[in-house]
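== Sequence, structure tokens ==
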Amino acid sequence: MSSVRRFVLLVMCLFLLESRASDILNDAHVYRAFASYEVVPDVVDEAPDCWARASFKSGREAEGGNRLTPTQIRNPPAVTWNSNERALYTLILTDPDVPSRDDPRYREFIHWAVGNIPGNDIDRGETLVEYLGAVTPRGTGLHRFVLLVFEHLQKLDFSGEPRITAQCGTVRRYFSTRNFTRKYDLTNLYAGNFFQTQYDDYVNTLQAQLRECESERSLNELNGARNATVFGGP
């Protein structure tokens, strides 16, 4: 096969892959995907208007319900959306299926929260909850991980919320997307995405990391059940 023919075939393959990704994340399919996986109404009342793209260092992406392993999502994803440069955004990543989708008595578990993001520049946002990968226990089946991006025009005051590090686990339980959005008047769910994950061996690494933090009384007091925050506590 000539080098020219190889080049042409490579270009065609890349075009097909790009087209496939575009079809998967077609904005016209957002509501149907959120409804079919019951993200609506388990997490939010309405689906966003468009997809947010989330790409992990492993080379995998969120594709509206596809399956990713804890190993593949161990690092925070690069998240992009069609932002308005004059607006600010607040992003959350939450698991509503704790300890399992059939028995979500600890719903929700917050994995990531960044407020007041200018445009798509998450690094310039205000990190409320540091990114934590999947700590899905063995035998609990698939968990939905829901990524939501809210648009707002004014800077929000998150000074009353504790800052939760990547070493803190239990204090992330009982998060409520609805309470969070109500507290900060986040009415414009601008973009979103979700994927599913379940136990693999990397979960053991994360669980060992979290036990060290959870033994610290000061953190448990800060993020206790009745501290009037939306992070931690029933």
